[in-house]
Amino acid sequence: MTRPGTMYKAIGGFDSVDRLVTAFYKRVGKHPKLVPIFPEDLTETARKQRLFLTQFFGGPRLYSEERGNPMLRRRHFPFEITPERKDAWLECMDAALDEAQIEEPYRTAIFEKLTMTAHHMMNTP
Question: pTM of the full predicted structure?
Fold first, then answer.
């Protein structure tokens, strides 16, 4: 169930999340700093990201229903997430937000929320 007044609803729901994730992983799959920590086939990674962002933006709790508590930091701990990789991830997301045509003020709010999350994911100097 989608709650009214959510970021998810404001940006256009699942179609917008889908466009964002597609644009994002198109970049991740080519970024020299990110390729080493992502699988060669990004299909499943992108599917999970769609579930997560749907929930993260206030839509249906698809991620938790399928995978339980997100526990992002713990799930990402096996991967060396350096400040450079965090920046590369955010660079890909920034460009994906443009490509997916996420409009203001939602674009800035989403990027700020994801920036805080990306900083929290860093686990390697």
Answer: 0.93
